[in-house]
Amino acid sequence: MAAVVNTDSSVQGISRAVFAVNGPQNTVGGFRNYWCNGSALTTANTAEGIISEGYGDFLSVTTTFLVLSESDPAQAEIIRLVKNGLLEEISPEATPALFNGTIVPSIATVRMANMSEGLDFQSTSVFNEGHVIAFKNEHKNRIGLMEIRTINLDRTQEKTYSDQNASLIFDLYYQR
Predict the structure, then answer these.
(1) Which residues contact 149 (CB under 8 A, 6 or more apart)?
(2) pLDDT tens digit sequence for 47-70
(3) What's the rounded Cα separation, in Å, for the pair 66 and 47?
(4) What is the 3-state secondary structure of 2-53?
(5) Which residue among 2, 27, 42, 113 sits deepest, i.e. has the most Cβ atoms within 10 Å of its Cβ?
């Protein structure tokens, strides 16, 4: 059980053919769907039940997100650093906009665009391939960045789990 306490986020398929990235605090309803070595971590579907099974520390971790936009100059600079391989560290000196209140991850869940929105849909809570997501783990007081590299998902399926080969590939950068 202790391994999940250090988790910053989880990626899951949600009701339609869409991936979502959640902070642990936002996983109560779906936590019973998490599996390890062929067994469900829990069958509980309430916070009280999950806590009674020993996962209270996991649920107490708050991680928030923000899908960065090229149209915002401060966010565009972070995107440029990530996409061009120039990000050497995440720190107040190297990436001040992530620390001085200019860029504030504040969304509990971000998700990929669905078929009706289209691949070019822009939102602070919706991502597609090539997008960069900033996140902050309040428990660790650390900031990170996630670059969505590849989304392998048959978006014509009604549910994400209907695509046996579905995957989300990303690069993760984390403050030391």
Answers:
(1) 129, 169, 170, 171
(2) 788 778 777 677 777 888 999 999
(3) 25
(4) HHHHHCCCEEEECCCCCEEEECHHHCHHHHHHCEECCEECCCCCCHHHHHHH
(5) 27
